[in-house]
Amino acid sequence: MKQLSHLSSEQLSNWILEASQQAKKGKLPDYIPLLKQTDASLLTVCIVTKNNNILIQGDSQISFSLMSIIKPFLLLYLLSELGEKIIFQKVGSKPSNYPFNSLEQLQLDQGFPRNPMINSGALTLASLLPGKDANKRYKNLQQWLNKLSQCHLFLDELMLKSVQSVPNPRNQAIIDELIKRNHIKDPEITLDTYNKICCLSGTITDLAKLGLLLVDSPNINQQNSSIVTNIMNTCGLYEASENFAKKIVFPSKSGVSGAILSIVPKQGAIACYSPPLDQQGNSIASLYIIEKIANYLNC
After folding, report:
1. What sign results for the dihedral spanned by CA atoms 268, 273, 276, 281?
2. CB count in 10 Å sphere of residue 45
């Protein structure tokens, strides 16, 4: 069986050329002004094995906001802090066939967030972060992740201002529903915390190193990492999760910045960044590359 560490730079480079053509079919998100201004031709990939072999293609110095890719790591942190029982009293683990920011799904579920990978679940978990205010809460998560993964996540203040510059009626409606159901407290702190953790940013190498936390990391409880990767597998790509999981067995999580993180069980992590998105909000080029790698590994 082929290993992730056997993948050559030349082979990866060929797939990136093909993926860059696929990316032309996508669109930049228009609801965050700074993301709309991103260079659509950017494409970078980093593969890190659990033995710390690193293969990088593209500009490794580009930084980008994690956006929804922070959600699995928010879950991982809170599992370590609060435990499984408390977390799943507050949020479920079932897939959703509705968009990631759906109020309808939350209402159908009587105010109980369906899973931690959609906005209702992540907002609920953000309300559980320790700290008296949003600054303390996001920093607790940031410092924990940086220490354990040896990455250098930082808060992108310009991206945060861009996110805050445009009203987000869907997230506000979700917050209102969660308050109505007595599911969260301190709505302003919760939303501020959520926006800040989504604007945590880093390079493609930082993202791949984060992924290694979910690959037999000695610093992470293996039961907790299994919970996170199982939910990523069924919920990490929103409505596309089910179809993706049928073809590819890599637990994955996307963000509207154009990044996708995929976990290759027992082997390593694949981080891809290409801003143009498909209709579900997933990076077209990143999905293409991940599928090519999966076929190469016969996964």
Report:
1. positive
2. 26
Cα distances (Å, whole numbers) of residue 275 to 97, 173, 197, 282: 23, 27, 19, 9
pLDDT tens for 50-95 read 988 999 999 999 999 999 999 999 999 999 999 999 999 999 999 9
For residue 56, the tally of other CB atoms under 10 A from its CB is: 18
Closest CA to 115 of 148, 80, 153, 68: 68
- Cut 0.85: pTM above it: yes
Contact 195, 164 (CB under 8 A): yes
Q: Which residues lie across from 48 on neighbouring strands?
A: 54, 269
- Summarised one tens digit per residue, pLDDT across range 162-182 is 999 998 999 999 999 999 998
Domains of the chain: 4-296 (3.40.710.10)
Residue type, 270: I
Nearest to 299 by CA among 221, 243, 241, 246: 246
- 95-104 long-range Cβ contacts below 8 angstroms, 24+ apart: 95/234, 95/235, 95/241, 95/242, 96/235, 96/238, 96/239, 97/239, 98/239, 99/238, 99/239, 99/280, 99/281, 100/68, 100/238, 100/281, 101/170, 101/171, 101/174, 102/170, 103/170, 103/173, 103/174, 103/177
- Local structure of 203: helix, strand or coil: strand
